[in-house]
Amino acid sequence: MTLSPATPGLRFERAAASRPIDFVTPAGYAAWLAAQPEFCRNWLASQDFAGKGGRFALLPDESGHWQRVLAVLDGDHPYAVAHLPKLLPAGDYHRGAGDAIGADALALGWGLGAYRFERYLERREPARLHAEGHAAQSMALLAASTLVRDMVNTPAEHMGPEQLEQLVHAAASEFGARSEAVVGEALLERGFPTIHAVGRAAHRAPRLLRLDWGDEAHPRVVLCGKGVCFDTGGLDLKPADGMRNMKKDMGGAAHALALARLVMQSRLPIRLTLLIAAVENSVAGNAFRPGDVITTRQGMTVEIDNTDAEGRLVLCDALALAGELRPALIMDFATLTGAARIALGPDLPVLYSNRDDLAQAYLAAGEAQHDPLWRLPLWQPYLTYLKSNVADLANAGSKMAGSVTAALFLQRFVPADIAWTHVDVYSWNDGDRPGKPAGGEAQGLRAAFTLLRQTYDNRHSASA
C-alpha cells in the first residue's frame, strides 16, 4: 500500500534557508519581549499581540522582511505546537530561542500536525521543522501513529483482509519475526469458526493473521486486533449514515499492528504474539443470520442476536487462542461499540481490565503521554443482558450498557488468571483540530506502548 512519510513535516538536516522559531510560555513572554529590539516590540504592539498561549507571530527584520517566528505555547505537550505546520508559510524552520517545549514533544507534535492523507491527492509539502535533539523513540511513536492513520484512512477497496495480511508479513520480514495466515475454509479446519462465519459472505476470504517475535525466555504478551475491513452490518444492515465510515472498522487491527512494530523496533524484552482477525462483514446468500448458533473455538455456543455485533465474534476466537498461549498479558484493541462513543465521545477510548493495578498503570501512561483513556467497569450483573435460551451466550441483547456488555462478552473468552486489557477505540477524528486531522487516528497507542515499556523493560524509568 502507499504510505505517508513516516515523519511528516520533519527533516533531520537544517536547510540553509531555515528560519528560527522562538518558543516561549505566556509567563515568559514579557522577559522575551524585553530582550527584543525596539522595532520588533513596536511590530508586536501594532498587532495587539499580548503573548497569549496558542498564538504566533511572524517577526520582521529592520528592513521589514519577515525572518523568524514567535510561538507562544499553552503547554509543553505535543499538541501545543501541532497547529504550526499547517498555518506557517511553507518553508523550513528550526528551534530558536526559548525552552517552552522539549525536543521530543516538539518533534512529535509537529509531525502529528503536519500529517495529511495524500494517497489520492496531489502531495503538498507542509512547513518543515529541523528535528534536533529528539530521541529515536519519539520518531518511532510518530511513525506508528502515521501508520494507524494511513491504514484507517485507506478505503476498503485497498485495505481488505489480504492487505492486512501483506502488512503483517512485511512487519515480520522487517524485524525477523515469523508470520502466518489461516485463510478461508482453513479457519474451520484450524478451529476459528466465528471468524469464518462473520467473513464467509465476502468476496475476499476471512483470515486469522499471526506474528511471533522475541526470545522464548521473556514474558509473552499477546496483542489482538479487530480487523473488520468493512462492516455493512451483515443481514442486520446498517443505515447509510452508519455505514459511511465503516472502512475504519479495522482500526483495532491497525493499533495492534502499530504497537507490535513499536515493540519490535524498540526490542522490548518480551515474547510477542500478534493476532489479527481480518474479515469483511458482507451480505450474501451464505451470510450468517440472526438466530444462528455458532460453536466458538473455546467450545462455548453463541446465539447470533445481531449480525452487526460481529467484532466481538471475530475477537473471541483470537482471544481464545491468546489464552491457550498462557501469556503474562493479553491486550486487545477494537472499534467495538457505538455505545462507547455515546458514553465518552470521540476522543476518549474506553479501557476495560480484569486487573485494577494494570488499569491504573495504563491510565497513568496515557496521562503522561497526553494520550488519555477512561476506564469503565466490567459490571458482572450485566451479563444477564447476554442471556440466550438456546445457547451459552448471545452476542448482543439489551440496548443498555452496550460497551460494558461487549467487554463482558470478550471477558468470557479470557482465562481469569491471565491479565487482560480491552480498549474500545473510535480510531477517528470527526473534524479537523491541530494535530488531530479529520479521519483516521491513533488513540491510546502511545499509552499502550509506554505501559509495556514501564512493565517489561528495566532500561527505562517509570517516567519514560
TrEMBL record:
Residue stretches making up the Cytosol aminopeptidase domain: 306-313
Aminoacyl-tRNA synthetase among keywords: no
UniProt entry keywords in alphabetical sequence: Aminopeptidase, Hydrolase, Manganese, Protease
GO MF entries: manganese ion binding; metalloaminopeptidase activity
CC per GO annotation: cytoplasm
The family this protein is said to belong to: Belongs to the peptidase M17 family.
Protein name: Cytosol aminopeptidase
Species of provenance: Arenimonas maotaiensis
